[in-house]
Design goal:
Layout: E1 2-3, H1 4-11, H2 21-29, E2 30-38, E3 51-58, H3 67-78, H4 85-88, H5 92-108, H6 119-129, H7 142-156
Helix pairs in contact: 6-7
Length: 167
């Protein structure tokens, strides 16, 4: 049993007003169902908030996702959930973090940096190829985020690490 607004965030779907990182992260790892509303008059003394009962059923096995990268991606996307992904990924601190992680990846694999390297162009190119540059996090579902994370990893080797995000 949770406070109603928290429970609504857990079960929120893309496009809902309460859809947020909590929603997408919970739904990545579990099947979430709202079972019932519990009115405050069912308690003595009555609390100031309404409650709801939610069922969380963990997915078994959990999805094969690097959770550090997943969390980094959702942090960037939901930083301003009403901004487009293109705008979210153009923020200087985000570009700097992605560039740092990309250069680290190249150095660990003894690969040279391309002479005309431009991280912002690389990221926007991926978003455009996926036709996601104008999408907003509030309207993206689990599959959209999975597709984006896979594209960053496979096409650009951009590793999103939440520990290096200082937004």
């Amino acid at each position: 049993m949770f406070q109603r607004e928290f429970a609504q965030r857990l079960v929120a779907k893309p496009g809902d007003k309460l859809y947020c990182r909590l929603s997408i992260n919970t739904q990545l790892l579990a099947r979430v169902d709202m079972l019932m509303k519990v009115g405050k008059n069912n308690f003595k003394p009555p609390p100031k908030v309404e409650s709801s009962v939610v069922r969380l059923e963990p997915k078994n096995p959990p999805p094969p996702v690097n959770f550090t990268e997943w969390d980094g991606l959702t942090r960037i996307a939901f930083l301003r959930k009403n901004k487009t992904l293109g705008a979210a990924f153009k923020i200087n601190s985000v570009i700097e973090m992605l560039e740092k992680n990309y250069k680290l990846h190249l150095s660990l694999h003894n690969k040279p940096l391309e002479p005309d390297f431009n991280m912002q162009a690389k990221v926007i190119g991926i978003l455009e190829k996926l036709e996601m540059e104008n999408l907003r996090a509030r309207s993206m579902d689990l599959d959209d985020f999975m597709k984006l994370l896979l594209a960053f990893n496979l096409k650009a080797y951009i590793l999103i690490n939440r520990n290096s995000i200082n937004l």
